[in-house]
Amino acid sequence: MLICLQSKDVDKKIGKDVLCLQNFTLPPASLWDPGPATWIHASSSQWPNPCWGIWIRNSLKSCTGFKSCYLVEPGDKVLVCVNGYFGERMTQVVERMGANLRILSGQWGQPFDPALIEKELKSFRPRILALVHAETSTGVLQPMEELSKILKNYPETYFLVDTVTSLGGHPVKVDDWGIDACYSGTQKCLSSPPGLAPITFSPRAMEKINKRSQKVQSFYLDISVLGKYWGKEGTYHHTAPISMNYALLESLQIIHEEGIEHRFERHRRNHLGLVRGIEAMGLKMLVPEPYRLWSLNTIMIPEGIDDLKVRKKLLQEYNLEIGGGLGSLKGKIWRVGLMGYSSSESNAIFFLTALEQALREQGFEVPRGAGATAAKDYYTKAK
Q: How far apart are CA 335 and CA 18, in angstroms?
């Protein structure tokens, strides 16, 4: 199917294999789902800039494979910690690389006990340990300090981490935690349009990559070529989406102006304001308090409440889009993103007010204004 975007003065001729859309415009929406987040207008305003320069374009999903296909060689022992949907995605990618895969399964909505991971490290002796720092499907933030200390006792193991929903909203200490390969996305807490994936390799990870016994199958994700593309050589590899990088640069400049520590505190404060309101409404959070993501809040759906009806009402009547559960949590939780530009007091209070109305419509008893009032009280005391 070929899709053409046309202006109204273009003659419309629609064949069976051609769909022409006239006067195509993007409707405004409040994206408070797990991602992409609402991006800052100043970021999108950079799109029309001239396309020049060199950059590497990798979407988030290709980046997941990018990290694995370079570090992982056929036969490598890989331990993947799975306590959510995106941990499962990691296993699928690693399997395709022909690795000797072992899965450490955890409860969805709970972090991993570092002692259990160490037990697997001792028995399996993996070449690579892979886990998700911020599990978008559950709202769990995996503690890293203790695990990073444990990994110092296993120098043969490379550490691969998914920081898609934490970068820009939570501290991500790549060097301090001894992370060898780390990837994220621009569309979450960085408040930039989707389409780019920040990545980083440690020097020893690059050494492993350069000593591979066989070439990586994917030319598109061949870092030996990509490295020359953005390096001094400037060797052509692909046409870069430079406008996306102007947008990302603008987002990063805004983050710099705010200050990264202030940004973390803003995410923490608005998460807590939302939680106070949710609990005042008689609802529960999925994740235990010490392990909750500030950027992605998972609310348990009360018994008897229709998930889709609530989300449909929020979208149609309040122009507010949130996410539903994935995998085993489908129909059991709502996923509310307060990330980047979307993380604000007004957004938290607006969502609580809208959710109250959606719940009341289905007969759920909520003290009138309880959520918004509790959040406002929290913000007043927090200032």
A: 36
